[in-house]
Amino acid sequence: MNNDIHDHVTGYVLGELSEGESAAFEAHLESCPECRIEVESMREVATELALEQAEEPPDHLRAKVLAAVARTPQEGPRNGAITPIRRRPRWIPAGIAAAVVVIALVGWSMLGTGRLINSVLNDPLAVTIEATAGAGDFQAARVVFSESRSAAVLVVEGLEQLPSERIYELWLVDGDEVLPAGLFNTGTEGGARILIDGEIRPGMVVAVTEEPAGGVDVATGEILFSAPVDA
To answer: pLDDT of 19-34, one tens digit each?
Structure first.
């Protein structure tokens, strides 16, 4: 298991951690709002996808997931004996292989995103730009730009959590062109770390608006805050 406890989110959500690892991660969750947000988000997305018709995953991912499913106990022993098994989140429907495949694929995708977010935030050459307030009310907001990774992460604190019918939307402003760059909501404590979608270049401006759930192609809300990407 990876030594960085922040990378245990997917294993925790999928019930793949040992009891000791789960206990350590749960203790970590009490003091890490970012991990709590990722756990909540992964559970919500995975639950929604598990209830829908899953598309056939790529062969190389499907093989890995089915192998993991085969290693995971799905039934109790037939002789009536009680055998300890790994704890499984209650929302994962045991024995439904298709749902496990969908959840695992979502988990791997989010884990990859989480690692990229961490690599940007831990890049010693990354540039941090404090956001300029617009119409928004927040405690702190900044964009961390890693030119070597061509990626940027928005970190917000103390931003109001929106109801389900509303969402925050990121925008990349490049001259006269304004491109959607991701959707997010905050956790109950108002924090979030979001990987900004799209190609990031110096000279662009990252902006955030509040929009209807699902996002829009053209911004309708006021700019809550913005930050110029600089190298």
So the answer is: 778 888 888 888 887 7
- At 89 the three-state DSSP class reads coil
* Residue 183 in tokens: 């959707």
| Sign of torsion over alpha carbons 119, 120, 124, 130 | negative
For range 29-40, the mean pLDDT: 80
CA-to-CA dists, residue 7 to 25, 26, 41, 195, 222, angstroms: 10, 13, 15, 16, 35
C-alpha to C-alpha distance for 164 and 170, rounded to whole angstroms: 17
CA atoms within 13 A on the CB side of 207: 23
In 3D space, the residue among 173, 182, 179, 170 whose CA is nearest the CA of residue 221 turns out to be 170
What is the rounded distance in angstroms from the CA atom of residue 214 to the CA atom of residue 196?
Answer: 16
0.90 surpassed by pTM: no
d(CA 16, CA 214): 31
Token pair 């979608």 is at which residue? 197
Which residues, in sequence order, are bridge partners of residue 145?
127, 152
DSSP 120-189: HHT-TT-EEEEPEESS---SEEEEEEEGGGTEEEEEEES-PPPPTTEEEEEEEEETTEEEEEEEE---TT
Please give the Cα distance from 42 to 111 (Å, whole number): 10
Buried b (16+ CB within 10 A) or exposed e, 215-229: eeeebebebbbbbbb
- The predicted-structure confidence for 67-102, as pLDDT tens digits, reads as follows 555 555 544 444 444 434 344 444 444 444 445 555
